[in-house]
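haha ok so turns out i had the wrong file open the whole time. this is the CORRECT one, sorry everyone. sequence first:
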Amino acid sequence: MSRFLRYAVHPDNPQPRLLRHASDVIVAGGVAALPTANGYLLACRLDDKAAGTRLRRLAGQTDRDPAVLLCRDLAQAAVYLRIDDHAFRAIRNGQPDAGPWLLPCTKRVPRRLLTAGAMARLCFAGEAATQGLLGHIDEALLLSPPAHGAASVDRLPPLWRDGIDLALDVGPLAPRRCGTAADDVTDESPTLAAA
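then structure:
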């Protein structure tokens, strides 16, 4: 039987008390299912090795897969990723909930998460509840690959339900972007890179 905290929050005006408690669970080493533009995805602290290992195991990721970072805004993303003028313009001209973009990492990203090219994917919250949670935590989160998003908390894979500590439930989500490709904004022209 799966046991995790399930917080039903309002999709447009999430309750700050529930977001504070959810942030405490994540900061303490928890793995959470959060609403994003690509459905419900797993997230944990970037610096927590045990939670990161558990998230990658639940999401079926290998060590060679690039990390996916969930950031509140471009200012927070610039702490973890090198965003040059071209990448900034490409991200700014896209939808705020679009992504993920493949970008080079700064030294703030833990080395255990880096692939051979020292690249990571950037995603933004796209949902008010997750945006509010990121405001309480005030750091980027490690995210499961966007291709694995669930449409609702009730449709989370059984492995996820048994392995998570928390779910922020805003109701059913309609994914707004296919997460099977990522915009590579590291060169002069944005191209698609396989996820």
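DSSP finds six helices and ten strands in the chain.
again sry for the mixup
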